[in-house]
Write a structure and sequence with these properties.
Aspartate Aminotransferase, domain 1, Aspartate Aminotransferase, domain 2, 2 domains, 7-stranded mixed beta sheet, binds pyridoxal-5'-phosphate
């Protein structure tokens, strides 16, 4: 394999000299201005105009009816699962090939993840794998709930993830989830700016979570958002993320256990500035993707591209090498050259906390785990 050509292609885009990070944040808008405005106002904490504006902006960008700000993507996903009605000892179908936060959020409730396979082309949960599992391993109880026949536990929700911003087959999965009475919670943490047809990722399932962590397409330092078209769910999400306080001019009365999960105004100030330049950021990232898609196949490298009918945000550009040995050799070569590259995550079922979770064959997940590498994908200034 021509590793030097890959590194050259990266350097042609990001610069001949110096260290090239995998993904650095880009502050090219009103970030400083809004942060100063926020500090001057004294409203730096969990109440303030930027938080409200952030929620409005998220509705506009995604086309969702409601958006609720959260302290981070993991908290947003945890809350989305609570709102979806997931309870202790329920099971939640997800993918083994994901960032650990997906599985952690499920575990916070005391629910059990079931890890199924992904599609090779989307890197996201495979509707066929889900359907196969549901057909063969579950039955409906008298309340029309989906029950895992092996464990007797209820399967309440399904959490697919749009890996690296490449949209998975969400419409197909929605149909299956609706048929089996399973709530579809999209882990859209990585996919701000990614679309399936005209619909933004996160708006096709019943509820979704986004992340605004420092390594994501746009950042609020730390932050997250829940989106849903369900008004009742949206109200409950706002209420539970703000300590479950019963509204009153001065009384402190909380009628259930709530969470301190609201995004602080100072983070929202940063987020608002970042969302203003999202189109510019996406365009720049697409140019990077196009340069990889154009150059790397010439030296025999498979580059993951958005599927027909979808739009990827190209958060992290992705190549698929021929074997684990080749992957390891390339990771060593590129990182030694100051070009930061990373493998995909260890499959969730190999982590100590999730080693006893139910899985299917995970054939594609295992294949991809050995071969996927992310290339530098920051905005080029
Ligand atoms: C980043 C990420 C999260 C969590 O977001 P944080 O803001 O870091 O808590 C969840 N799921 C996936 C797939 C992610 O990539």
């Amino acid at each position: 394999m021509d590793f030097a050509s890959i590194v050259n292609t990266v350097r042609n885009r990001f610069g001949k000299e110096g260290f090239i990070p995998l993904h650095a944040p880009y502050f090219g808008g009103n970030e400083k201005e809004y942060l100063i405005e926020c500090i001057d106002s004294t409203f730096v904490s969990s109440v303030g105009p930027f938080v409200d504006r952030f929620e409005k902006d998220m509705c506009e960008i995604t086309g969702s009816k409601f958006a609720i700000a959260a302290v981070n993507g993991t908290a947003a996903l945890h809350m989305a699962l609570i709102i979806a009605g997931v309870e202790q000892n329920d099971e939640v179908i997800s993918q083994a090939l994901t960032f650990v936060a997906t599985a952690n959020a499920i575990s916070y409730i005391g629910a059990l993840p079931v890890f199924l396979d992904v599609d090779k082309d989307t890197l996201g949960l495979s509707p066929n794998a889900v359907l196969h599992f549901l057909k063969n391993e579950t039955h409906q109880n008298e309340k029309n709930e989906c029950i895992n026949s092996k464990t007797g536990n209820r399967i309440k929700a399904c959490v697919p993830m749009h890996t690296f911003g490449f949209p998975m087959r969400i419409n197909e999965l929605l149909e299956i989830c609706n048929q089996y009475n399973i709530v579809l919670v999209e882990d859209a943490a990585e996919s701000l700016g990614s679309y399936v047809g005209e619909k933004h990722t996160g708006t096709i399932g019943h509820i979704a979570a986004f992340s605004f962590n420092g390594n994501k397409t746009v950042t609020s330092g730390g932050g997250g958002a829940i989106i849903t078209n369900n008004e009742e769910w949206a109200k409950r999400a706002k209420y539970l993320t703000t300590t479950a306080k019963v509204p009153h001019a001065w009384d402190f009365f909380h009628d259930e256990i709530g969470y301190n999960y609201r995004m602080p105004n100072i983070n929202a100030a940063l987020a608002c500035a970042q969302l203003e330049i999202l189109p510019k950021i996406l365009e720049n990232k697409r140019e990077t993707a196009n340069s990889y898609l154009q150059e790397l196949p010439k030296v025999g490298i498979h580059v993951v591209a958005e599927r027909e009918g979808t739009k990827a945000n190209y958060w992290l550009n992705t190549i698929v090498l021929d074997s684990k040995d080749e992957r390891d050799a390339f990771l060593k070569f590129s990182n030694e050259q100051g070009v930061m590259t990373r493998p995909i995550w260890t499959l969730m079922n190999r982590l100590p906390a999730f080693k006893d979770c139910q899985t299917d064959s995970l054939e594609n997940s295992i294949w991809l785990e050995d071969r996927v590498v992310n290339l530098p994908s920051s905005v080029v200034k």
